[in-house]
Amino acid sequence: MFESVDNSPYNVFFDPQSGCCKPSDECGYTYVSPTQWTAPANFNSTNPDCSAWGNDANVLCFNCQSCKAGVLDNLKRNWKKVAVINIIFLIFLIIVYSVGCCAFRNNRRDNSYWK
């Protein structure tokens, strides 16, 4: 993992990880380890997510608005993929059903000539 000038990790976070696993950049926290960040001495921010951050691994910033927005964005992205797959599968089923109906009708028509 690369380190940037301000000693914070230089890796790319997914939306939920970025909002839940590290404090917002505007809070001014100093990176210590992936779950340890220290608040600046004169901590003064209007962002409510800054005061919600906790270094406890079970808390971090899971109650932050940025975390909730990241999870929601991730869900929307995943559901769009699932919806596209479902539509493709539905079209495939309609085609198979249509071919089956045509085959059944043709088979019935062919059998009526022999009687």
From TrEMBL:
Sorted UniProt keywords: Membrane, Transmembrane, Transmembrane helix
Keyword Transmembrane helix applies: yes
Any Pfam family matching the protein: Tetraspanin
A GO-annotated cellular component: membrane
Q: Where in the cell is it found?
A: Membrane
| InterPro entries the record matches | TET_plant, Tetraspanin/Peripherin
Biological process (GO) annotations held by this record are: auxin-activated signaling pathway
Q: Which residues cross the membrane?
A: 82-104
- Bilayer topology: Multi-pass membrane protein
State the superkingdom.
Eukaryota
The keyword Transmembrane helix is annotated on this UniProt entry? yes
Q: Give the record's family classification.
A: Belongs to the tetraspanin (TM4SF) family.
What is the recorded name of this protein? Answer: Tetraspanin-8-like
